[in-house]
Design brief:
The complex is a heterodimer of chains A (350) and B (256). With 350 residues, chain A is mainly alpha-helical. Chain A folds into 2 domains: 134 residues, Cytochrome Bc1 Complex, Chain D, domain 2, CATH 1.10.760; 142 residues, Cytochrome c-like domain (Cytochrome Bc1 Complex, Chain D, domain 2, Orthogonal Bundle), CATH 1.10.760. Chain A contains 14 helices and 2 strands. Chain A has a two-stranded antiparallel ribbon. Chain A is globular, with a radius of gyration of 27 Å. Chain B has 256 residues and is mostly beta strands. Chain B has 3 helices and 16 strands. Classes of the chains: A mainly alpha (350), B mainly beta (256). At the A-B interface, helix 1, helix 5, helix 6, helix 8 and helix 11 of A face helix 1 of B.
Amino acid sequence: MPNIIIPLPMKKTICIFLIAFTFLSCTEKKEKEKLPDPEIPYSINVPVGFPTMDIPSDNPVTKEKIELGKMLFFDPILSLDSTISCSSCHLQAKSFADPRKLSVGVNDCTGVRNAPPLFNLAYQSFFFRDGGVFSMEQQVLSPIENPIEMNLDPNIAVKRLNRNQKYINLFQKAFKRNPDLFSLTRAIASFERTLLSGNSKYDQYAFQNNKEILSSSELKGMNIFFNEGQCSNCHSGFNFTNNLFENNGIYEKYFDMGRFRITTHFKDVGKFKVPSLRNIELTAPYMHDGSMNTLEEVIEHYNNGGKNHVNQSKNVMQLNLSETQKSDLIAFLKTLTDKEFINNSAFKKH
Amino acid sequence: MKSIAQLFISLLLLIIVSCKPDKKEEIIKPETPSLELKLNFSHFINNKALDHNSIFTTNSGTKFTVDILRYYLSNFVLIQKSGEEVPLKNSYLLINPDKSQYSIKDVPKGEYIGIKFGVGIDSITNHSDPTVHKKESPLAMQTPNMYWTWKSGYIFLSFEGSCDTTIAQSDSPIMGRFKGEYLFHIGNDWLYKNVSLSLPKTLLFDESKEINIEVDLTLFFDGIDLKTENFTHSSATDNVSKKVAKNIPNMFKFSQ
């Protein structure tokens, strides 16, 4: 190394300059490191026997999002006249279904379909009875905007949230951004993703090795469900649905054309999403239009084999079940009720 | 003396080591000026400029007023003199007659003789999530609404206003509006329409330039009796939306 001769005072200056430069040049980096990450990663525990849950890459679950989503779920701020919230038509005691035939929106409007229960939604590929929407995030927009539900322009909903300091803080905490439609839909979907129901008597029997828990009537009903009655042809798998659309033959002519409204294929007239049968005891009235009040009526319909609409599912056929068999089948359906789910304090309004 | 030199070297090393991850590499951008194609739209009904106060008449004689007109144009393609097609990436425009000029950025230089575009949104983007777009994007949720949230799809064209729906005697407008109303919400993949127009003369596109497009809404109502055919959400069984969608590509032409 060549010996560079520098006078001493200058050397001192250089050294001080260099030291100062070292600090200066690194300040930016240190500031970046100081920023706390507001997102606390959160993993949702799925019930025993359930497959792992797919979570969209643009909406990883965090505690903050779930809390915010829950607050929005219960807040009428998302309806035109601030009278209706998601929870107005999705009651936890009814596994988040509506005991009314048709739900009532702002200005006492009613639609044509019965509000579905909300649970195990992360396992659904389609939303709404006709499956018009295919992500939980996008699903959030429709009830807000629908003139017969909350009747609020989603852009106005966002403006309202941006006038509310409590929400601005919570959105900043959860998303590092002010309320917008991206964060609003992500928050509510995150909360809805936590609505998991998988601890019914049946689950304890099937997945938790509690073989004594079902009575002999319930066991007989289970046998009918999976074999003789062939109910499980459509209501299949851990969530008791094949996630497809079927015409179950309740009408000869359909006023609400169901899946046809989306696909426009005549083979889809009168087809609706096969619902999960979990918590079915709690979700009366039944069918897409809430036209049947009791499980007895529903069983009677399937036992008779339907009205033979041209698109009626091949799985709907006359069963000739005896009265005892029918009541055994209903006893089994009631083992799908998950009391822990409807009492879970994590889903209750603060 | 030696120790000062050591201190000097060690400090120098410290700077290099401590700051290495921060060292920003300069990105050298190639010198390509981003050219803009500006499109000026003017809307007419029977040679009369569209506004929200006038009363217009369809060719079949029905009087009407206009509240809302919005429509999407997308997937612009420029046609070179050689016939080669130049697709313009991310070209989505939401046309509102209250605003005349729109622009498409990053348009390559060339000599162009024609232009193609779709009225509506292509099937891939059509069913995508509108909430991922920035507020300013035409693909974000709009007010008035241009997205069907119940079926995840854009409304390609929204045309609303009042019209005279009386058959026997004619309705006289009150405060500039008729009692009857019309609403055309055109959408769904099967109603996406392609438009192909030849430019009036070769466009030497070597700098940002403007082109003028005239939209004749008289043709929108071609074969439509507005007295009775005045409402559609483009459902599958609906014929009004199909008739109207067939007319839509004919509405566009270049003007000098």
